[in-house]
């Protein structure tokens, strides 16, 4: 998901619905305008939460709709509190601020065949894509992996779309139906466009399985970076604007350390994929662990994603 969007829209929460165990959907409608900005399948919005938290969520509803946006949130026990707050606090009628839709995971509507592979909450952008392809009459198939049926969000909605049951294959671990991702890729038509969204291991396996296919036909979106966050600590960050030197302790990320010391820094995914926490580097060598910066940007060492990256030098001077 992309960098934070500064364009803000006031909306009202009009519906909360349980979609699966630990997954709830939230419907937002405009307050000051009759319609919301148009969006394309695969797009996401930023949701502004208390305590300066920003979270990015895929839009689940049909892109044809302009009267509402719908997102789904999975409760994450190990998260930074955004998902827990969403499951605990909001009530229908509450007012929220969101960012205008952005899309880093676009759908190729001209493809002869679209093959979707997803795991868990990775279904959310795929639902919007399938709804769009249903409107255009294009051919598609879905392989949906989940631990058990009760955790497979939107499975019932998708089953209504695929009434014949010929385009959706559920791979439920509880029923011994583990997904053979490489087999799915190998069986896909040579001119098919393939999409994957899900856990880190699934996306990594998907990229490996698609190595021989044209890159223009392979699409994926991560919810977490391919590398583990740098939590070794043992270095200092220096804030250029006020001169503070703050040690980063073992077990902490740079972001953890900055927040602990009251430093105002924007962040969203906390996984190195959205770009919200991008911070300028004045001096030092970052230990890049993100999936947002390009290889050239990483080599230039002029920016760092503080949510997941560390430092290869004893001191990292940040533009903060």
TrEMBL record:
Q: Where is the 2Fe-2S ferredoxin-type domain?
A: 235-320
Q: What is its EC number?
A: 1.-.-.-
Q: Which InterPro entries did the record assign?
A: 2Fe-2S_ferredoxin-like_sf, 2Fe-2S_ferredoxin-type, 2Fe2S_fd_BS, Beta-grasp_dom_sf, FAD-bd_FR_type, FNR_nucleotide-bd, MRET, OxRdtase_FAD/NAD-bd
The record's SUPFAM superfamilies line, in alphabetical order, gives: 2Fe-2S ferredoxin-like (SSF54292), Ferredoxin reductase-like, C-terminal NADP-linked domain (SSF52343), Riboflavin synthase domain-like (SSF63380)
Q: Name one Pfam family in it.
A: Fer2
Domain FAD-binding FR-type, chain residue ranges per copy: 6-108
Give the superkingdom in one word. Answer: Bacteria
According to the UniProt entry, its GO molecular function terms are:
2 iron, 2 sulfur cluster binding; dioxygenase activity; metal ion binding
PROSITE patterns named among the record's database cross-references: 2FE2S_FER_1 (PS00197), 2FE2S_FER_2 (PS51085), FAD_FR (PS51384)
Top EC class per UniProt? oxidoreductase
Give UniProt keywords alphabetically.
Answer: 2Fe-2S, Dioxygenase, Flavoprotein, Iron, Iron-sulfur, Metal-binding, Oxidoreductase
According to UniProt, the name of this protein is: Phenoxybenzoate dioxygenase subunit beta
Q: Which organism is it from?
A: Paraburkholderia dioscoreae
């Amino acid at each position: 998901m992309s960098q934070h969007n500064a364009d803000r829209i006031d909306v009202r929460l009009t519906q909360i619905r349980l979609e699966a165990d630990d997954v709830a959907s939230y419907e937002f409608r405009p307050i000051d305008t009759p319609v919301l900005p148009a969006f394309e399948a695969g797009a996401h919005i930023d949701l502004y939460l208390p305590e300066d938290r920003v979270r990015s969520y895929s839009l689940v509803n049909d892109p044809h709709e302009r009267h509402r946006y719908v997102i789904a949130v999975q409760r994450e026990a190990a998260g930074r509190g955004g998902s827990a707050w969403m499951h605990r606090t909001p009530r229908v009628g509450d007012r929220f601020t969101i960012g205008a839709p952005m899309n880093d995971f676009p759908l190729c509507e001209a493809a002869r065949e679209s093959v979707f592979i997803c795991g868990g909450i990775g279904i959310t952008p795929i639902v919007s894509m399938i709804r769009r392809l249903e409107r255009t009459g294009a051919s598609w198939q879905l392989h949906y992996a989940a631990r058990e049926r009760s955790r497979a969000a939107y499975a019932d909605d998708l089953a209504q779309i695929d009434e014949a049951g010929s385009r959706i294959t559920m791979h439920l671990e509880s029923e011994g139906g583990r997904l053979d991702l490489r087999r799915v890729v190998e069986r896909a038509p040579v001119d098919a466009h393939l999409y994957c969204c899900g856990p880190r291991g699934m996306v990594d396996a998907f990229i490996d399985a698609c190595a021989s296919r044209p890159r223009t036909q392979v699409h994926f979106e991560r919810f977490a970076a391919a590398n583990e966050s740098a939590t070794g600590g043992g270095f200092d960050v220096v804030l250029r604007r006020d001169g503070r030197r703050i040690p980063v302790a073992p077990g902490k990320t740079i972001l953890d350390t900055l927040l602990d010391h009251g430093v105002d820094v924007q962040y969203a995914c906390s996984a190195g994929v959205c770009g919200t926490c991008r911070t300028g580097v004045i001096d030092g060598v970052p230990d890049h662990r993100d999936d947002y910066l390009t290889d050239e940007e990483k080599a230039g060492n002029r920016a760092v994603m503080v949510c997941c990256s560390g430092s290869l030098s004893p001191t990292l001077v940040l533009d903060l």
